[in-house]
Each structure stands twice: as C-alpha cells, then as structure tokens.
Specification:
The chain is of the alpha+beta class and about 350 residues long. The protein has one domain (about 45-355). The protein has one helix spanning about 10-60; strands at about 70-75, 80, 85, 95, 100, 110-115, 130, 140, 155, 160-165, 170, 180, 205-220, 225-235, 245, 250-255, 260-265, 280, 290-300, 340-350. The strands form 4 sheets. Strands 1, 2, 3, 6, 7, 9, 10, 13, 14, 15 and 16 form an 11-stranded mixed sheet that branches. A 4-stranded antiparallel sheet has the order 18-17-19-20, with helices on one face. Strands 8-12-11 form a 3-stranded antiparallel sheet, with no helix packed on it. The radius of gyration is 29 Å and the shape is elongated.
Length: about 350
C-alpha cells in the first residue's frame, strides 16, 4: 500500500497549533515567574523589617542600666542631667541622617548602653563593674582596675543615678592597694552621680558604656535608604544634643532597604504605673525627664526591587510609601512598586522600671 506524507496545509496547521501552545506556555511561565518574583520581594521586606526592629529592641533592652534617674554629663563646663534614651522627631524638622537634617521624615534614637559583661565577675571579666572604695568628687579609688576599658566612656552609678566620665587615666591596682581613676570631669564643681549626697559614694559601681545612635541613611553601595548605627562620642552634635557620631567613622549597616524609622516615648505622667494611662510623645530631648517607661519602635522596610504586574508593564498600584506614627505620607503619592512591611513593637524599659527607682 502506498503511504503519503503530510500536505503543506496540514503542516501549516500543525505549526500554528504548536506556536499557540508554545506562546501560551511561555506566557504562563512569565506570569508565574513574576508571581514568584513578587512573592520573594514581599518576603524579603518582611524579613528586613523584622530584623531591623529586633536589632533596635535588643539594644533598647540593655540601655539605661544604672541610670533610672538620669545620667550626669558635662556640657559647656556645667553638669547637666541627661537621659539614656532620646531622639529627634523627624517630622518637626525633616528628620536626621547621622546628625544632619534630611527630608526623609524619619526619627533617630540615642541610647547609653552598658558593656554586655558589666554584671560579670569583677576584676576578672573584661567590662565588668568595679566598686568605688572612697567617697568624693575628684579622682576615683576602686577595688580593682583589670576589667576597665580605657579610653572607652564609663558610668559611675549608684544604680539610681549615674555620671558619664571620659578620658580615663587609670593607675592599676595592686594586691591590697586600690586602683585610681582620673577622668576629664573630675575637676568640674558639682559633677557627680549623686550631687545631693556630696559626691560619689563608697559602693558605687564603675563600668564601661557605649553611646549608640540609630538612624536612616543611604546604603554605602546601593544608596537605598537603610537602618544605620554609629558609635557616639561625648561632643555636642549639630542639633545641640550632648552626643555626636564618632568623627570619620563609617556607619554600620544594621539592615538595608529600611526607609522609615519612628520612635514614640511613653511616660507615666499619672504616677499610677498603669500602661493604659501613659502619655505618648513624638521626639524626646536629651535632658532627663522623670516618668519615661516605654518605647514604641516602628520600622518600614521594602523589597530590593519594585514589584510589577504579570505582564511586567507597570508597577503595582498599591506599592507606595505608608504613613507610620506621625510621619504622614500624602495619599496622592505615586506608586513606586516597592512593597512595604511594617514592624512595630512596644517595650517597657526594664532598667527604668518603677521597681528600680
């Protein structure tokens, strides 16, 4: 029996059907790839917001140890009682990046954080607190000096109020002989962690601390807004606050793609120790104010790249900046395709708890 091949018409029909099937499959693959891409960047923004918030809260949890009634700092030659927690409200003057005002509307936050080993074994563990053995207002005498970390800043604390001392000159202790600690503020009249008691007291604790500054700034490579952290020094900043970033130091990137950072300060103004009656403030000056009990931290993070519709023809219309706390975004702001994730957490300040006063 004689066989025959496909006719030209049959071949053209088969090719047309095959082309349609391939085009449909390709379209499905592109759409599926876009869905996967968008989902990945949504997850990415969730992770960035959570990690940024947790990093801040980890420092907040430690800050203020030994200073529920404030920290004495020498400013312009005069002792001034300051707080272990303060920060600028960005919406009052366009935010901060480092110590320079910007237009992002974000807040910043300064914390006085003790060495992580300050409760370690004295005279053995680096960073552990040592005890003052002679009262007074000038040079300190301490039971040992092995755990001190000059030239780092230190606090002298009676666990109610404290004094921040700098430029330490340490004369090491010897067996049976106290160590001596000279510091820049020793000759300042009235400078003490408890001036109402006439100076430092026997039994006060001396331990290293860090000044930590969180703020929003550009990533050094991508230039995208990111949560940054710097170590501080005891020099007034451009905003008149007692601390400023280390000169010439490169900020540490805590988390990239974080575009907004907001802090609310909760005060127990009634004295009832009832969180439901706390008064909330946006922005808090550096001077100590009684009653600070809690912080509410909010960060907004984005994905790395814009999300687009299944045809990749336009960014998603709902992906645009969001309002957080009192940093209000215009409702007509154009969509940019960046998915936003918000992390908000409130933390009672354990080192300022009423039980510690």
């Amino acid at each position: 029996m004689k066989t025959r091949g496909m006719t030209l018409l049959e071949t053209m029909v088969a090719l047309a059907l095959t082309s349609i099937i391939i085009a449909a499959a390709a379209a499905l693959m592109v759409a599926g790839s876009r869905v996967v891409h968008n989902t990945e960047h949504t997850t990415d923004s969730h992770d960035s917001a959570r990690m940024a918030g947790e990093a801040i809260m980890g420092m907040v949890r430690q800050a203020g140890a030994g200073a529920p009634n404030g920290i004495w700092v020498r400013r312009n030659g005069v002792p001034v009682r300051t707080s272990a927690f303060f920060g600028r409200d960005g919406t009052t003057g366009a935010g901060t990046s480092g110590n320079v005002t910007t237009a992002d509307g974000s807040d910043d936050l300064w914390l006085v954080v003790p060495d992580r080993d300050y409760l370690g074994e004295p005279c053995v563990t680096p960073g552990a607190a040592v005890s003052v053995v002679r009262p007074g207002t000038g040079e300190l005498e301490v039971n040992c000096t092995q755990s001190l970390k000059a030239p780092q800043l230190h606090l002298v604390s009676n666990m109610t109020s404290a004094a921040l001392i700098s430029e330490l000159n340490i004369v090491p202790s010897a067996p049976g002989v106290p160590g001596r600690v000279n510091f820049a503020e020793s000759g300042t009249p009235g400078f003490s962690n408890a001036p109402e008691k006439g100076g430092f007291q026997k039994g006060d604790l001396l331990y290293p601390v860090r000044l930590v500054h969180f703020f929003i700034g550009p990533h050094p490579v991508s230039r995208r807004p990111s949560l940054l952290r710097t170590e501080g020094r005891l020099v007034a900043d451009a905003l008149g606050r007692p601390f400023s970033d280390m000169a010439g130091a490169t900020p540490v990137v805590v988390q990239e793609n974080v575009e907004d950072f907001q802090v609310a300060f909760g005060f127990d103004t009634t004295g009832m120790d009832d969180p439901a009656q706390y008064t909330w403030r946006h922005g808090q000056g550096a001077d100590h104010q009684a009653g600070l009990r809690t912080l509410r931290i909010s960060v907004v993070a984005t994905g790395r790249n814009p999300r687009r519709n299944s045809q990749s023809s336009a960014v998603l219309a709902d992906d645009k900046p969001v309002t957080v706390e009192n940093n209000v975004r215009a409702p007509t702001v154009a969509a940019d395709g960046y998915y936003r994730s918000l992390f908000t957490r409130r933390m009672e300040l354990p080192n300022l708890a009423a039980a510690n006063l």
